[in-house]
Design a protein that fits this description.
Pfam families: CP_ATPgrasp_2. The chain is of the alpha+beta class. Among the domains are: 94 residues, Rossmann fold (3-Layer(aba) Sandwich); 64 residues, Dna Ligase, domain 1. The chain is built from 13 helices and 23 strands.
Length: 472
């Protein structure tokens, strides 16, 4: 069976340059190769100087490394972005409605649209949140929705990241880098800005403060400097002009949350948390951790502090819940989904399990709680031994896995050691829910730098590109 040629972001099927890439392509053709090489080296040097690194778990040598940055941008025309943005807003509205419902009336479960045990027995479902009202019924204040293109260029949602989605700092720094290195390109293109994201994020966080708080204090809660995304935590706190805090900097008294400062205690109204549920409150969740704040859940349940994202959102970004998002859109919004899911086999179902086991060499199999490109099998790229080892894993716990067809992800020209060559990529736009649902144009484009690789995650050797949404 011949391999399907991936959709090329820059070139049409006849080899001509797509209209929205023509200005850039013309610039690239007339720019000396040694100047481009010099700019790539300059970019690496600047990223090192700023300290934009990513911690890679499991590597013994040099756990901190630079995320490779590619200077060929991913360009999206205005009309395509309008469709994509509308679909993303629709999806996040439905996801928020779903989370509010499952912690209150559970109408979607009563209607039989999603199996109740799939939700209520899910490891990410938090019974402690049942009946808890949160400001605006917003649970996923910051969502990173992973989108891919396949086929003839159709967009598909690959997964929803609603717990502590990361990567927005790289979106911002990639844009800064391109503007610094190639100001002439920005003079030639009408590119929608992204640098206002920290202001938009802060505005959204302030808008969901507890009732009656007019001038809320917002903090960013980090697990500390050893976390893989610590650079981003520090970066965003600095950009928003808020305090970066660890659990030891906070305490609860009379169901109010306070921050220790040199001027004495200061009440905290909104926490942008970058810590998983399990570590937020040792009195409520894991008692063996000191990353969180004892008593935080009681203050939260009393409505004295807002946590973004809300405790318990993880159930909606579980990969076993993902197949039901189109049904959520129909159920809560009465609309048809604007963006399609990737067809998904849920291996707790016998027919899906049987099909997957018979076609492992053709499918991508993922752990439902997996992240970062770990715990997955890419059948067409796996050896017979790897497939058989994964088969045994599935048979031991089929409910822990889903499977999807191996999509031929779109490709974009990318600078590699051999020159310019196509590499597969995805896109993570960041959708903010506050008094309204908003997003900046673009997102984080991640690119698989190894030839033929479909794994774009930074932890698996992927790189990033600047994402340009054209305004006209």
């Amino acid at each position: 069976m011949p391999a399907v040629k991936p959709y090329d972001e820059m070139h049409a099927e006849d080899g001509s340059v797509r209209e929205h890439y023509r200005t850039f392509s013309s610039w690239l053709d007339r720019t000396p190769k040694d100047r481009v090489a010099q700019k790539r080296t300059e970019a690496d040097s600047l990223f090192h100087r700023v300290g934009i690194t990513f911690a890679v778990y499991g590597e013994e040598a040099g756990t901190e490394r630079l995320i490779p940055f590619d200077i060929v941008p991913r360009i999206i025309p205005a009309q395509e972005w309008q469709h994509l943005a509308a679909g993303l807003r629709q999806r996040v509205r439905a996801l928020n409605a779903f989370i509010a419902d499952i912690y209150h009336d559970q109408n979607i479960l009563a209607a039989g649209r999603i199996p109740a045990e799939q939700v209520l027995c899910n490891g990410q479902y938090r019974p402690e949140m049942q009946g808890v009202d949160v400001p605006g019924s917003i649970y996923a204040h910051i969502a990173g929705i992973d989108v891919v293109r396949a086929g003839r260029g159709e967009f598909y949602v690959l997964e929803d990241n609603l717990r502590v989605p990361s990567g927005v700092s790289y979106m911002l720094e990639d844009r800064r880098m391109m503007m610094r290195l190639f100001p002439e390109l920005f003079a030639q293109h009408s590119i929608a800005p992204v640098e206002h994201y920290p202001d938009l994020l802060l505005e959204n966080l302030r808008s969901v403060a507890p009732h009656g708080v007019n001038d809320p204090t917002v903090v960013l809660l980090t697990p500390g400097a050893y976390n893989s995304a610590y650079f981003e935590h520090a970066f965003l706190a600095q950009q928003m002009g808020i305090e970066l805090v660890e659990g030891q900097d906070l305490y609860v008294e009379d169901e109010f949350l306070y921050m220790r400062t040199t001027r004495g205690p200061q009440r905290v109204d909104v926490i942008y948390r970058r810590i998983d549920d399990d570590f937020l409150d040792p009195l409520a969740f894991r008692p063996d951790t000191m990353l969180g704040v004892p008593g935080l859940l009681s203050a939260y349940r009393a409505g004295r502090v807002t946590i973004a994202n809300a405790i318990g959102t993880g159930v909606a970004d579980d990969k076993s819940i993902y197949p039901y998002v189109p049904e959520m859109i129909r159920f809560y919004l009465g609309e048809e989904p604007l963006l399609s899911n990737v067809p998904t086999y849920v291996l707790r179902r016998k027919e899906d399990l049987d099909y997957t086991l018979a076609h492992l060499n053709e499918l991508v199999v993922k752990e439902v709680h997996g992240a970062g490109g770990y715990g997955m099998l890419i059948g067409p790229a796996a050896t017979t031994a790897q497939i058989e080892e994964f088969r045994q894993r599935i048979l031991r716990n089929p409910e822990k896995y889903i499977a999807q067809p191996t999509l031929s992800l779109s490709a974009c020209p990318t600078f590699v050691d051999q020159g310019i060559a196509p590499r597969h990529l995805d896109l993570r736009p960041f959708v903010l829910s506050g008094s309204e649902v908003t997003l900046v144009p673009g997102g984080l484009t991640r690119v698989a730098l190894r030839e033929g690789s479909l794994v774009v995650n930074s932890s698996q050797g992927g790189g990033t590109k600047d994402t340009w949404v054209l305004e006209k």
